[in-house]
Specification:
Layout lengths: L1 H32 L18 H17 L5 H8 L3 H14 L4 H30 L5 H23 L1 H67 L3
Helix pairs in contact: 1-2, 1-4, 1-5, 1-6, 1-7, 3-5, 4-5, 5-7, 6-7
Length: 231
Amino acid sequence: MHILEQLGLALGLASLAGLNLYLTVFLSGILMHFNLLHLADQHHELAVLGHPWVIGVAGVLYLVEFFADKVPWVDSLWDTVHTLIRPAGGTLLALQALGDMSPEIQVIAGLLAGGAALTTHATKAGTRLLANHSPEPVSNIALSVGEDAAVVGGSALAFLAPVAAFFIFVIALVVLWLVLPRVWRVLRSSGRRILTSEEWRRVSAFAAVRKLDLRFIAASDALSSHRNSPL
């Protein structure tokens, strides 16, 4: 049971870090700092998250992400920058949650944790790209608030019921692995449509300019013929 608790907390923190690393660290730090949870001895390494400097830095970075995450296309740029940061942060959180384990288990767990964080990050980034194709900003705000709520609820689940969290996060990741390829296929098709429409606009603009040039040439020829004709 202790192993499942460690795995559940590690998998939960890694998966949530893929959505919002800074909020995950901030919430975990608050819980550690104020002793709101009495963690088992195997999770003692997570106590470092309760350091005031860790909480302060995570809080400031989350505040920046809170606003950047709600602006169309700025959120996608932010996701691009964090493509490596979130999986790396999720891996570190998972290793801290696992505590003292054999080196081979730590390596395997680190790889799985990085994959889990990358999965949730890719899903978030792909969903945001789809939302950014719509002209209104409401969907971005709704998605951002929903992601933050998921991190809050997921963190509570991971700390309060890590065994249940293990199975729930495993199921959620399997569903995301099934959905994620479809999301990126839709993105590819949308990108092709945008490219096609852009190319069509360029062709139309070129045709309009060419037509104007032909009219100008015809008018010049007519004027030249009029000037050269005998009175």
